[in-house]
Specification:
Blueprint: E1 5-7, H1 10-22, E2 27-32, H2 38-50, E3 53-58, H3 68-73, H4 78-87, E4 92-94, H5 98-101, H6 120-123, H7 127-142, E5 146-150, H8 154-166, E6 172-176, H9 196-201, H10 203-217, H11 223-234, E7 240-249, E8 263-272, E9 275-284
Parallel strand pairs: 1-4, 2-3, 2-5, 3-4, 5-6
Antiparallel strand pairs: 7-8, 8-9
Helix pairs in contact: 7-8, 10-11
Bound molecules: adenosine monophosphate.
């Protein structure tokens, strides 16, 4: 087992990476908010296989929270997370305090237009602007060759891919498949907040999305019908309260009605008690438009 070195200042991180950069080694970045689980683990392990130096950032980014209660409830244990990174072969853990990332007189944000208008963006004002701002900062601080993001947060991934393209970051974005529990629930730090009863209902989210995907594979070409099928499936359990269910184009993240020939994401956010869960599945509609 290796151990990861924890670093909390931007200057110290740049110093630590300097020898590797000079030697022409490849650097990978895995941005996280800590409370690490096997989903994060798969990003770190993939980065380890593909690059010489692996940096995991652990930073609960205050400016991406649209809800103060959610931010307050976001508990992490830096020692446990650093040990977790070491077990998976990460070299450095970058865990800056908020003041290191955000000087009090900061005045700059990064915002990707349009891709954040639907899905989570509609319900979490300012969320994606906070994400793109912190990720752009991390890209400039670490200057990685590759950065790893989970498909679990498909809208975030699409927005970051667009930011990298539009702003010419010389970074390859590597998408990593969603890691699930044996019962289908997507791993998430927020699952820990579910009561045992709520946890028992959580598999319905993935089951409902999977039903929509199967319908599309079997010939459904209407976004409205696929969406309704998912909603009907979720309605079987009244404790599970949908915030949104959408069938979107995988590139634009905009809802679509005529699914023919498209690469799609079926995405949903649901509330279980006071916990908000999101999930999505990819689907391709093989029928071609006339
Ligand atoms: P977070 O700490 O929730 O901000 O997530 C950090 C990164 O891990 C993001 O790129 C997420 O998409 C990814 N991630 C979180 N959960 C999973 C999962 N179950 N499977 C794969 N990637 C995940």
């Amino acid at each position: 087992m290796t151990t990861s070195t924890r670093i909390d200042s931007i200057a110290a991180l740049r110093r630590a990476l300097e020898p590797a950069r000079r030697a022409g080694q490849t650097i990978a970045l895995v941005p996280t908010m800590g409370a690490l689980h096997a989903g994060h683990g798969s990003l770190i392990e993939r980065a380890r296989r593909e690059s010489d130096v692996v940096v995991v950032s652990v930073f609960v980014n205050p400016i991406q929270f649209d809800n103060a209660t959610d931010f307050a409830a976001y508990q992490i244990n830096l020692d446990a997370d650093t040990a977790f990174c070491g077990e998976r072969g990460a070299d450095l853990v970058f865990a800056p305090p908020a003041g290191e990332m955000y000087p009090p007189d900061r005045a700059t944000h990064v915002e990707v237009e349009r891709l954040g208008e639907h899905l989570c963006g509609r319900f979490r004002p300012g969320h994606f602007r906070g994400v793109t701002t912190v990720v752009a900062k991390l890209f400039n601080i670490v200057q990685p060759h590759r950065a790893y993001f989970g498909e679990k947060d498909a809208q975030q991934l699409a927005i970051i891919e667009r930011m990298v393209r539009d702003l010419d970051f010389p970074i390859e974005i590597v998408p990593v498949e969603t890691v699930r529990e044996p019962d289908g629930v997507a791993m998430s730090s927020r699952n820990r907040r579910l009561s045992p009863g709520e946890r028992g209902l959580a598999p319905l989210l993935y089951a409902a999305l999977s039903k929509g995907r199967t319908a599309i594979l079997e010939g459904c070409t209407s976004g409205r019908e696929a969406r309704q099928l998912i909603l009907d499936c979720l309605a079987a359990e009244p404790q599970l309260r949908p915030e949104y269910v959408e069938v979107v184009d995988a590139a634009s993240m905009e809802p679509v009605e005529d699914l023919r020939g498209r690469r799609l994401r079926l995405a949903a956010a649901v509330w279980l008690g006071s916990t908000r869960l999101i999930d999505n599945v990819a689907a391709v509609c093989l029928q071609q438009p006339d």
